[in-house]
Amino acid sequence: MNSIKSKRLIGLFLFIYFKKAFNTVDQKLLLLKLRKYGFSDIALGLKENYFIDRKQFIKIDNEKSDFISCNLGFLSDFTVKPYADDTTLIQVGNDINELIEAFNKSIKKLLVWCHYNRIDINWSKTEIMIVSNKKKACFPTSISIDKNDIEV
């Protein structure tokens, strides 16, 4: 932030929120990624026992449903759940139009990543912030990203 102000640049921040991020995590894909990142077989075995083929049921009053397997998402008490369903993209530069163009390129890459990881962006909660101390700068009141108008 200080370098944006001191160098009279423009900072464009996109605060991205994902839709039901923890309800849609593909557990097998997560385990493959953890293996790729070098987790040991023992650690992966523990995670696999925790995630794969969990059984769940619904109880209303004294009535219980049958058990079913649940291979998507995390348990509701998973400790990182409240903290990891959002991210921020940041672009810094001199020209707002160039920043928006660069943002759209970054968003295209993010959308490919989202598709591969089976996660969607919650555009209604996603926000944009522009930071600058440029005098007489004219910034848009909304920016269109992937056919979604996001208020600035």
TrEMBL record:
- What protein does this entry describe? Reverse transcriptase domain-containing protein
| Taxonomic source organism | Brachionus calyciflorus
